[in-house]
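REQUEST FORM: STRUCTURE PREDICTION
Request ID: SP-0412
Submitted by: Lab K.M.
Chain count: 1
Length (residues): 324
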Amino acid sequence: MTTLTTNSIANSKPTAPVRDEIRTFIILTALLVAVPISGLYPFFVMNALCLALFACAFNLLIGYGGLLSFGHAVFLGTAGYITAHALKVWTVSPELGIVLGVAASTALGVVTGLVAIRRQGIYFSMITLALSQLVYFIYLEAPFTHGEDGIQGVPQGKLFAFIDLTNPIVLYYVVLAVFLAGFFLIYRSINSPFGEVLKSIRENEPRAISLGYKTDHYKLLAFILSAGLAGLAGAMKVFVAQNASLTDVYWTMSGEVVLITLLGGLGTVFGPVVGAFIIAAMQEYLASFGQWVLVIQGTIFVICVLTFRRGIVGEVAHYFKMSL
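STATUS: Completed
RESULT:
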C-alpha cells in the first residue's frame, strides 16, 4: 500500500518538459505584466499579443494536427467585422461583442471544417483558401462592412460595465488576460488525451484509424477550436485598432500567420509567440521603408529557414535540450 502511494505521488510530479514549459510561461507572463512600466509602446505589444494568439491558434491546427490551412485569416476577420458592427451599430457591451464575434468565427469554422476535412494534404489547403476568398469577396460587397473603407471608429466602451477600455493601460491588461487565457487553453488541449490523439493523427493517420479513433472527428474539433481562438484574437484586435478592415480577411494575412509559425517554430508551444513579436516589430519599426518591408521580411524568413530548420524556438529548445 505504501509502495502504491509513493509511486502515485512520484508519477503525479511534473515531468522535465512540463517543468520547462511552466518556467517559460511564468517568465513570459512576468515580462508581459511589466510592459507598462518598461517604456515599451503598449499599442505595439497589444497588436503583437493579438497576432500571437492568432498564430497559436493556427499552430494548434498545423503543428499538432498536421492540417495546413491557407485561409485561416477568414476567422480572424469575421470575428473582427461582427464585433465591430455589434459595438458600433447595435451598441452592445464589449463582452457581448466579443462573444458574438467568437461565435460567428466558430460557426464559420464548423461550416468550413465540414467541407474541408473530407480532403487531405494540398487539397485541404486549397479548399480552405478557396472558401476564404469566397468570404473575402462577400465582405467586399456586403453593406455592413463598408467595403474597402472598413468599419472605422469602433467604440471601446466599458467591459462588464466598469472596466474602462478607453484607458490604454487597462485595455493592455485586458488584452493580456485574454491572450493568457487563450494560450493556456491551447496548452491544456495539446497536453490532454485529445492532444495526444491529434499528434498520433499527424504522425500516422492510418495507424490511428486502425486503433479505433475517428480521425475526422478529432480533426474537425481541432479545426473548430482553432477557428474560435483565431476569432477571439480578431475580436480583441478590434478594441486595439478600433477598426475592422479587409486586410484581416485577405489571403496575405493567412500567409503571414504561416510565416510567423514557421519563423518561431512549428509544433512548439512558444514559437508562434516569438514569431509574432518578431513580425510585429518589423512591421512597426521598419515601416519607414515602405513596400521594402515585405522584401526585408522575405529575406529574414529565407535566412531563418536555412539556418534555423526547426524555427527559432525549436532550435533553442534543441540546443539546450528543453521543451518549449
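NOTES: Residues 1-12 have pLDDT under 50 and may be disordered.
Reviewed by: T.R.
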